Every structure is written in C-alpha cells, then in structure tokens.
C-alpha cells in the first residue's frame, strides 16, 4: 500500500513538473531590444504590427503569467529607453506608440472603429514620414513624405482595395513623377502621365482596369515625349496590346 501511494505521488509530482516546464516555455520572459534589431532603415519599427488585427496582424501577446495581455504594456531597449507602449485587449493591440532610442515617437497607431484605423510614422528627427488610413485591415489611403517635407507618394484605393482611385508619385524636388487617377468610375478608365525630373512630360495616355486580369492596361492613344517636351511618337493600344 505504501509503495502504491509512493508511486502515485511520484507520478503526480513528475507530471506536474513536466506540465510546469511546458507551460513556462509558453510564458514570455522579459526581453530588451537592440535598436539595430528592431529599427529597419526603410520600414521603421514593425515588430508589434503582428499583434494589431486592424493592420492585418494575426498574433496575440501574452503577459508574464501566460494569459492574454490586457491593458497598457511597455517594452524597452537594452539602454533602458522606452521602445513601445501599447494598450492590449485579449492579447490584441488597440492603440500604441513606438519610439526611437532618442525618445522620438517612431509611429502612433489607433483604432477608429472595427473597420477603420490610422498609423502616423515619423523620421528619427520627428519629421512626418507617412500617414496611412486602414480599412478592413488593408491600407486605403496613404501619403508618404520625403525627409525635406515634400510629398513622395499619394495613394487611395476604393473599398476593400477593389481598385485604385489614384496613385501619384513625386520627385524629391517636388515635381510630379507619375500621375495616375480615375476619370471614369463606371468604365474604370484612368489618366496616366509620366514626367521627367525636370518637369517635362514623358508619356501620356489612358489606362483601363480589367477586373478579370486584375491589371491596369494601356487603352487608346499614347504619346511619348523627349526630355525637352517634344513629341517622339504616338501609338494606339487595346487591352494593353499595340494595334
């Protein structure tokens, strides 16, 4: 009888230890981050986006006890400087700010409602870099800026990214590079202009969105110009094919 009780006690303790070890492996431990590991030169700090469903994230954050994170949580650089402060509900981010190691805000995110959210991104010196409005987890409107303050890109999509409304890009000197804008919503036709860096027109024509191909193809008359603005050639297209 004593041996049976001893064996049962041993098995119970062993099982408890194994369970505790497996469980503890899932519990996040305190971690500090090096700036070089979390700050991408092009995209900034995107480490926490995966916990924000409004940004397309599909991961959850857990607290030190292994439960879904609730309320305000903070993360830090190895230097002790604040990296991230976010508000979590059942492990998902509802609002947050990320910081460069110089204490400047890198980006600020907020949910407007369950369909809409907004991200504002900054350069390390505090200058505005991007403004992005999300709808149903995908970017619907975006404006990007050069460090000098000039607009780099303006893009707007219809609905759940069904098709583009506009996509205009600019050179750093402020001149337009590409103008691509919807002119007939029913026919899904667009005006398309490309420019040289000196501001002279390079190419001009019409694009049409073909839903079955999910592509924008040249349609009708297209004109090409040299860098002095003189006409080089005129071509005609149908569904992207030269006639």
How would you summarize what this structure contains?
This protein is mostly beta strands and about 240 residues long.
Write structural notes for this entry.
- This protein has 243 residues and is mostly beta strands.
- Helices cover 12% and strands 49% of the residues.
- The protein has helices at 2-26, 35-38, and strands spanning 32-33, 71-77, 82-89, 92-99, 105-111, 116-122, 128-135, 138-145, 151-158, 163-170, 176-184, 189-195, 201-210, 215-225, 231-238, 241-242.
- Strands 1-2-3-4-5-6-7-8-9-10-11-12-13-14-15-16 form a 16-stranded mixed sheet.
- The longest helix is centred in the first third of the chain and has 25 residues, at 2-26.
Keywords:
243 residues, 16-stranded mixed beta sheet, 2 domains, 2 helices, 49% strand, elongated, mainly beta, disordered N terminus
Percent of residues in beta strands: over 45%
The chain-level structural class is mainly beta
Shape from CA axes? elongated
Q: How far is it from the N-terminal to the C-terminal residue, by CA?
A: 95 Å
Give me the Rg, rounded. Answer: 27 Å
Question: Residue ranges: pLDDT <50 for 5 or more in a row?
Answer: 1-28
Into how many domains do the coordinates divide? 2
Task: Give the count of helical stretches.
Answer: 2
| Percentage of residues assigned to helices | 10-25%
What is the H/E order? HEHEEEEEEEEEEEEEEE
Largest sheet: 16 strands, mixed
Q: Using DSSP, what is the number of strands? A: 16
Mean pLDDT: 89
Q: What order do the strands of the largest sheet run in, or round the barrel if closed?
A: 1-2-3-4-5-6-7-8-9-10-11-12-13-14-15-16
